[in-house]
Every structure is written in structure tokens, then in C-alpha cells.
Amino acid sequence: MTPFELLEPSSFAEAIGLLDPDDPSTRPFAGGTALMLMMKAGVFNPTRLISLAKVEAKFSHITQGPDGDLRIGAMTTLSTVEHSALVLHHASVIGRTMKRLSNVRVRNVATIGGNLAHGDPHMDLPPVLIALGASIVVIGRAGEHTIPLEALFAGYYETILKRDELIAELRIPAQGARRTAYLKCTTGSADDWPALGVAASVEADEAGIKSAAIVVSAATEKPIRLRTVEAVLTGTQATDAVLRRAGDAAVEEAEVIGDVRGSAPYKRELLRVYVARAVRQALNGAA
Questions:
Q1: What integer pLDDT is reported at residue 2 of this predicted model?
Q2: Does 42 lie in the same domain as 12?
Q3: pTM (predicted TM-score)
Q4: Cα dist. 109→30, 114, 116, 196 in Å?
Q5: Phi first, then psi: what are they for 186, rounded to 5°?
Q6: Alpha carbon of 189 to those of 117, 126, 194: distances in Å?
Q7: Which pLDDT value is given to residue 160?
Q8: Positive or negative, the Cα torsion across 253, 259, 262, 266?
């Protein structure tokens, strides 16, 4: 690795002040699990790294907001999120997803904010959190603002974050009667990067599906909601015929890309099958 300067600010405000919006070689980091791999591979050669490890403790807290929403500080480690009773009560799908997200050594270091800011389309959490209707609080030199998580990702390893902005907090609204499931297909070990990830969040009663949020990742250049599939499902009973139509609609809507984990035709067939499976699992209480 090439030499670089390491700075350790004691506050988010100080960290933001150190960021240079015109310098792509300056990079903030939290756990650093992805950044270190990129540096070792020579993909990224920074001149300055800004560690967020010593910022205010409030950015590592998990709390419930006044509207019943779940608030997770950006510096909270994935292991803390995984084992939080508040998170499991609010959205148990997050805890289930964590058990197959990389390995415990990574989860002990990686943070929720870094996971999202990295913009890797193979990550497991973004599709789950998008299906849950999550948003993020972003702080920068221009102030603080909130954006829906589904708007964060701009492309392959790209986000809309400016170089002088940091994710401060993740917010997940109260889920009420909604039920959510996440399925991923891996070509290696169970905790490997997925060839395909599908998250399904549904609200249903005896009359059928009242609303649905379906998100695909890993097979696409960024996690995306499948609005056509949601329209197919809404107002129907989840019969085999309806789920087949939903799978076909997913293949038509998603721009699937191939990689080392599978060709585009292979992933399209996975998507056709996994959309139906994820919806069924969500309706069955994600058992």
C-alpha cells in the first residue's frame, strides 16, 4: 500500500470539516472492512483517511423514536444490531439476515453506516432495509437532511452522498402488521456474497395482499424496488398463478447483470423463482 495520512477526529462535525469535497483521495471510514480490501488490492490508493472510531458515542446507539420508529446510529456495529432486542422486536428479519451476512469477525467490526455508504450491490442489508421503508439521516457542510434509503444508491458501488457528507443515522418506521422475508442464493458458502438477493415485505389479511415492497439486489447494479411486481401482487391472493406472474414480471422489469457468481440468464431464472419464494415466506411469517 502507498503511504497515507491517518486522522482521528473526536466528533462528526470535526470529521466533516476534514473532508475535502474536491479530493477523491480523501476517504472517511468506520470499521474499514471493505476499505482495507480495496487498498490491499490496489483498487483505491488514498492520500488521507479519516477514522470515525472516536466520534460521539450517540452515533453508536440504538433507540426508539417518538413515532415508534427504530433509530440506529451509523457507527453501530453489525454484531450489535444483530443481537439488539429492540431491533429483533422491531424487525426480526434483520436479525435473521445477519446470521448469513459475511462472518462474525466482520460483523464485530463493520458498521451499519459504512455498510450502506460502501454502495456494494451484493450487500444483504440494503434490500432488506429498503423493503422495510428505511431512511437515512445525512450530515454535511450544508447541514442535515433525510433521504429514503432506496434513493441512496446511484449505480455500481455508487451513492448520491457528497464527499463532505456522512451517514449519521438509520431510521426504520414501525412495521405494524407487515411481515418481511429475505432470501439469497449463494454459489459458495451460506455466508458468501449472493448471486441474487430478494427481500419481500407484505401487508395482508384474509382478503389478500393489501400492499407489497419487493426489492432485488446482487443480480442488478444496485438494489432496486420492483414496482411492477408489487402491482401484480397488490389486491390478490398469493396463488401459484399469481406468484408465477410476479416472477415473470420481475424478470421483465429488472435489468439483470452477470458476474463471477452467475450469468445473466442464470440469475434471471433465479429471480423468477426467488420472488415467489420470498413472498410466500413473508406471508407465512418468515418461518
A1: 75
A2: yes
A3: 0.95
A4: 9, 10, 14, 25
A5: -110, 150
A6: 25, 20, 10
A7: 97
A8: positive
For the chain, the domain total comes to 3
Query: What pLDDT, in 10s, does the model give residues 34-70?
Result: 778 777 777 788 889 999 999 999 999 999 999 999 9
C-alpha cell at 110: 463493520
Q: Hey, which residues does 182 pair with through a beta bridge?
A: 199
The CATH number that applies at residue 118 is 3.30.465.10
Grid cell 449472493 is found at: 194
**CATH assignment at residue 192:** 3.30.390.50
Q: Say whether 79 sits in a helix, a strand or coil.
A: helix
- Give the DSSP H/E element, type plus range, for residue 147: strand 143-148
Q: What is the dihedral of CA 162, 94, 172, 32, to 10 degrees?
A: -20
For residues 164 and 62, state if they share a domain. Answer: yes
Listed in sequence order, the residues at least 6 apart from 249 whose beta carbon sits closer than 8 Å to its beta carbon are 226, 228, 229, 232
Closest CA to 128 of 230, 193, 216, 251: 216
**In a shared domain, residues 139 and 243:** no
Host domain of residue 269: 179-283
User: Taking the CA atoms of the chain, what radius of gyration do you get in angstroms?
Assistant: 19
Per-residue cell: 23: 479530493
* Sequence letter at residue 149: L
Residues facing residue 50 across a β-bridge: 7, 28
Do 62 and 168 belong together in one domain?
yes
Q: Which residue in this structure is represented by grid cell 449505480?
A: 155
- pLDDT tens figures, 161-196: 999 999 999 999 999 999 999 999 998 887 788 999
Cβ pair 170, 195 in contact under 8 A: no
pLDDT of residue 3: 82
What is the C-alpha to C-alpha distance for residues 258 and 195, in angstroms, rounded to an integer?
9
The CA distance from 275 to 250, in Å, is 8
Residue 104 has pLDDT above 90, yes or no: no
CA–CA distance, 184 with 162 (Å, rounded to integer): 30
pLDDT of residue 25: 87
